[in-house]
Amino acid sequence: MVSPAHFIALSVILFVIGGVGVLVRRNAIVIFMCVELMLNAVNLAFVAFSRMHGNLDGQVIAFFVMVVAAAEVVVGLAILTTIFRARRSASVDDESLLKY
Amino acid sequence: MSHTVLASGMAAETQSLTFWILAVVSVTAALAMVLAPRAVHCAVLLAIVMLCLAALYALLGAPFLAFVQVIVYTGAVLMLFLFVLMIVGVSSRDSLVETIRGQRLAAGLVGIGMLVLLSLTVGHAAIGPAAPVGPNYSATNVNGLAKLIFTTYVYPFEITAALLITAALGAMVLAHLERTGPKPTQRTLSRLRIASGRSAPLPGPGTYARHNAVDMPALLPDGSQSELSVSPVIAGRQDPRLSELGAAPPADPQAPGGTLPPDSDSSEPPGGDSEHEGARW
Question: According to the CATH classification, is domain A4-93 in 1.10.443.10?
């Protein structure tokens, strides 16, 4: 029988994979995708806890996380497009203008 | 009702089998996403992870979230990612050079540390068994969610509306391009076309060539390739076939990997799988 602990373990693994991806990758869009993976993992934990407690609050919070993630993606990708227009690159290594 | 079946009616063995298959597929796809050098592959692998998560939500008795996951995440968010990828450049792959020394090793160590920390935390937490299947997990799941959203969580819900409007406006402002010059009229455009010396439109790709793919340069009557027929956006990709086209002199019909006489369509060009090369994009 699958218990909520299994789901939470899976969520932990996905969250860590997403975190490592954020640290390793250099393409800003792929970093964004890894952030999305982390958000999804947290959603899975929310839904699993909702299943464990037998109420729907966790699912409502997961729903709000999805809404906020959608808004974040829209603005983030618009920023990336603007940066790409100005600097012709999507790599986070090239956005070092403020450093100098 | 399929979601009723998924939530409660499924046998325990079927549930655990479904869970393990989905878990293995999603973790594999997530790892491949982190490791895949091409951004488009990352997007497709992330879609696999998200579909697996939708099925897991259904398994957990959250049919509404399962559908929202498919529609909003896989349908909208990932398509937005793919749109932006197509704008920003499909061929942009991560360089394999570490810009910060030892960054990957450090990231791996941080990842292992995070895994250990989270595992300890989750291991110490008292995660009980699933609650007995109540009415919340059957066909009234949507009703229960609606009741919660519009009573207990009505203020966060309203604030969400403000957030979404702000995000939409912000995206429009950020992506807006201000026109700096006057809009060219038909008269100026035709004047420019005549002045450029080429009044006819550019040749289409694949004309008289062996394929009609958009990245296949047209062959001229003498067998040479017309570089004008391939869009510079496509020619700018790091495709070995097209870079050979750029390197080869246009009048040489026996250039390796590039030009072939139009009648020799049974032999593949050296370098093999040009069809698969094309399909990869």
Answer: no
**Separation in Å, CA of B241 to nearest CA in chain A:** 24
Element (H, E) at A28: helix A28-53
Strand pairing partners for B226? Answer: B218
The token pair at A78 is 């618009």
User: Is residue B149 a part of any domain in this protein?
Assistant: yes
Place of tokens 């403000």: B162
Strand partners, B219: B225
- Of A1, A19, A66, which has the smallest distance from its Cβ to B73's Cβ? A66
pLDDT category at B160 given cuts 50, 70, 90 is very high
Burial (Cβ within 10 Å: 0-12, 13-18, ≥19) of residue B57: buried
- CB-based contact B58:B137 (threshold 8 Å): no
Whether residues B64 and A53 touch (CB distance < 8 A) is answered with no
Question: Are residues B80 and B27 part of one domain?
Answer: yes
Q: Which of B44, B84, B164 best probes binding to A when mutated, by most A CB atoms within 10 angstroms?
A: B84
> Total structural domains in chain B?
3
Q: Check residue B248 and report its DSSP letter.
A: S
pTM over 0.80: no
pLDDT digit string, tens, across residues A1-30: 788 888 999 999 999 999 999 998 888 889
